[in-house]
Structure formats: structure tokens, C-alpha cells
Amino acid sequence: xxxxxxxxxxxxxxxxxxxxxxxxxxxxxxxxxxxxxxxxxxxxxxxxxxxxxxxxxxxxxxxxxxxxxxxxxxxxxxxxxxxxxxxxxxxxxxxxxxxxxxxxxx
Length: 106
Fold this sequence. Notes:
By secondary structure, this protein is mainly alpha-helical. The chain contains five helices and no strands. The chain has helices at about 1-20, 30-40, 45-75, 80-90, 100-105. The termini are far apart.
């Protein structure tokens, strides 16, 4: 029983870490729902629901890490085509002519 409540608290905190940050004085509806579900769940189905919650926490952590790595190793993903061309030229030791830059901006 004690280990079940400790695990439930741990899962609750893990789930809250994966949600967008909000002040504790104004919890979101999702946070309230998670808290109510964990606090009022019957002990018979608790193991299955806790396993599912643990899987969800692992999934969200993996997705967050994937996004972080994608942004880190593909810095040009969010750039427009002109900026990408300019940086590619600089990477190989060339600068784009000022005329090219002015023409594309106008």
C-alpha cells in the first residue's frame, strides 16, 4: 500500500513535469483531472492505470528529447531559403554579393 502511494505520487510529479508550466495557484484542467484520477482510483485497477501512466511519461520524455536533438542537429530547419543559402555560402568560405541580398529583399 505504501509503495503504491509513493509510486502514484512519483508518477503524478512526472506527469506534471511533462505538462507546460503553470503556477500552482491556478492548475490547468488537465492537472486537476490527473490529480483527481490518482487520488480516487480504486486499488484493483491501480496497477494497470499506473503502468499506462508510466508509459505515457516515458513517451513524452522521449518526444521532448527527440525534439531537442532535432533542433540541435538540424539548425537550418526553421530558416527561410535565403538565409539557408547565405549560411551555406559562408560555410564554404564565400559571401553572397550585396546585389544578390538587396534584390531578394526588395
